[in-house]
Each structure stands twice: as C-alpha cells, then as structure tokens.
Amino acid sequence: MISPVLPGPTPAAVMQTPTFVDSGQNLNSALSADTALSDLDGDGDLELVIGVRDTKDSANPCGLRIYDPANAAGTQWTKHVFDPGGVAIEDLAVGDLDGDGHSDIQIFLNLTHWMTGTDFIL
C-alpha cells in the first residue's frame, strides 16, 4: 500500500471531524436533480444553485433555482427562480466556462414531455 506524503506538518483542521448541524431551513425544493455552490455575484459568499427536475406543486415548479444568503449566519436566503415549470434539469455544472473570471451555469436537460410528428425539429 502506498501512503501519500504531504510536505510539511499536517494542519490541525485536516485532522478534525466536521460537525454538521440542522439549521431548520426549508428551501422548498421539489425533486432537485443536482446542486452546486459558487460565488455567482462576487460578494464573497456562496450561492446555492439547484437544478429541479420535477414539479412539486404550483409554488415549487421545476427549473433553475439560486439561493443567495441574505445574512452572514446563513439562516435566511433570497430565492431566485429561472424558467419556472419550463425546464426539467437533470444535471448542472458551475464554473468559468468562457475565461472571463465570472462563474457560468451550464444545465443539462431532461425530456419534459413526449413529442410526435413535427413538434420537434432539429
């Protein structure tokens, strides 16, 4: 067995076991298919990006959701919904796709209904 050797002393933080606490937040997600964290607006905190595949109800449709922390404690969030009910997101990726220094969101879609005849032409 080969063990990795890290240069210098191992930081104490690496040796600690993280503790996760339920904050009681309810983001009202339907059936989210994929999530990512990124500082989309450049304010130094991470936004939660959620791709929602299925509609839960009229208040929680499929689409792209971005939750922006509204306070430093992370107990309040501002919800932004893009294309509600119009796109079923299967996967997503967040990164600087075009090299401009800003995060971009790439979404991968799922078929939302069957199409017949000339309903869909490539």
UniProtKB/TrEMBL annotation:
Keywords: Signal. InterPro entries: FG-GAP, Integrin_alpha_N. SUPFAM superfamilies: Integrin alpha N-terminal domain. This is VCBS repeat-containing protein. It comes from marine sediment metagenome.
